[in-house]
Amino acid sequence: MGFLEVKDLKVHFPIKGGIFGRTVDHVKAVDGVSFTLEKGKTYGLVGESGSGKSTTGRAIIGLNKITSGNVTFEGNDITANNRSRASFRKDIQMIFQDPYSSLNPKKRVIDLVAEPLRNFEKLSRKEERIRVQELLELVGLSPESILKYPHEFSGGQRQRIGIARAVALKPKLIIADEPVSALDVSVQAQVLNFMQEIQNELDLTYLFISHDLGVIKHMCDHIGIMYKGRFVEEGTANEIFESPQHIYTKRLVAAIPEIDPHKREELKKFRLEVNTEYEQAYNDYFDEEGLAYGLKPISDTHLVALPEKG
Amino acid sequence: MAEKLLEIKNLKTSFRIRDEYHAAVDDVTLTVNKNEVLAIVGESGCGKSALAFSIMGLHTRAKIEGNILFKGEDIANVAPSKLNKLRGKNMGMIFQDPLTALNPLMKIGDQIGEAILLHNNTLSKSQRREKVVNLLQKVGIPRPEHVFEQYPHELSGGMRQRVVIATAIANEPELLIADEPTTALDVTIQSQILDLIKDLKDDMDSGIVLITHDLGVVAEMADRVAVMYAGQIVEVGDVLTLFEEPLHPYTRSLFNSIPNAHGTQDKLHVIQGIVPALQNLPRSGCRFAPRIPWIDEAAHEEQPILHEVKPGHFVRCTCYKHFKFPEETKEEQHHGVS
User: Fold this and answer.
1) What is the CATH number of the domain that holds B71?
2) I need a labelling partner for B45 at 20 to 30 A (CA). Which of A94, A242, B125, B133 fits?
3) Dihedral sign for Cα atoms in the order A210, A216, A222, A226
4) If you measure CA to CA, which chain B residue comes closest to A47?
5) Domain encompassing residue B64
6) CB distance from A55 to chain B under 8 Å?
7) All domains of chain A, ordered by start, with CATH?
8) Which of B186, B258, B267 is closest, CB to CB, to A214?
């Protein structure tokens, strides 16, 4: 039994058209995705923009309506978008991409961080203040800053306020949607280190969504690669980066710039080879609509979307 | 000897904040040769973009001192009418944010066509159209005839960035300034765009100033690298030297703070503190000193200058000789005890 199980998840958005605004077609943002998160581990969801990785994360937490499929959290079905979900909302929290637009500029830090507490726990003013100060200390901000507004903080500090909000209710799972993409390299290092620290401290599980493969490799134990709403490959970080099997993953991994100017020519040649292979083998790896096939296991942990016939 | 295309001499770009001028680019001297990629690296707020905007003459209210020589002619503080003859023709710029760099009310084809029209009005409308379609094709846009008629909002981020690049290279500039050209893009598109910029260099012998904070991109693209901190160049050298033997504490800290898909660090190095705001920049002493407080004050120079440690490899301040990461120091102490 997995900690969080996603089974054949589909999220389709209707395209309205005609004078009556009838649904004429669907955008299949997520089209049959299954994966399992292990407790205390970090699962990375990778893909280009538009591949459906963010939609998957948002669907799990309930920000996007699930068209079909199942999400099971600690053995309980949380797919249905109704009140029975409420009890799980506490356990699953989200860190958003942009620390500039995800905090209400008119609220003070104490109100921002206390908001989730007020929703779920009945605390007195004094207790609340103490909890918020503890949380701020946890994320490395001074407890005196509770009366400040978001604009008084730098990008990295804001992202920490976002994290303080996310961990306020002691969640078990955190969905982090591009948590460091908007940050500078040195601040990024700070936030990533910090996320790892609180993971150990609070025994957190992360679903880490990013397009930055360097960050993904640094953070994740397991990785799923998405393309057009489907998985093309899933495996441990090592399997994905050292022996990618699907042509799409190969191309993605080959495109990562290497921090070694000596390897420039070698890498250029390798990329050219992979690109040629990608173009030639595209039809073998994707169906008529350009979608990936179902995942087939090639080892215990490594699954690849290979065509039906060998 | 390589041919000098752009020479920046003692450039100082200052902005007015509360009636006082503060230098965002402080005494920068750099050269860019033909057929060369010069990468400028640093965190945001280090003055990279301010430098690029100064070269292109895009600051409207800044005080610019020093010289910017483009093919021997000083273009610092010249009238916009004179600059306009160069901008877009001899000098092109790729802007960071493709969404704000494009006019949302103009068709893609017309935007690129405008750049051509302004510098060459001898072409007929159909010739211009043909040229634009060729450019779109060159930057790897599928169905260029169709995209010609589209508006920016109809294109994805990667496609928009390609349109910005097509506009920048429309008149085959001798100098191309690329300000974070691939920051917002996925890796596969990033590598295509970088290849495109490389082709431009090889085909047209252009000089390229590449501004980025991605050291992977630098490793793949640059011939020479300049590292900027707080408005100053702290280290310059050719790409191989700089990656094999980075000397300045700031350069070394940057290298250690990046999660790399090919590396295996457990913990990333965090550079203490933040880049100070413009009006709070320390104007004397080593500007990086506050962020490496464990280094003895005596290690810094009083007025740090660039020292040539090897031909072509310059480092500012003497603190690099004594610099160690805190982890390294701890290990040494540990060994000393045991």
Assistant:
1) 3.40.50.300
2) A94
3) positive
4) B186
5) 4-98+174-291+302-331
6) no
7) 4-228 (3.40.50.300), 230-310 (no CATH)
8) B258
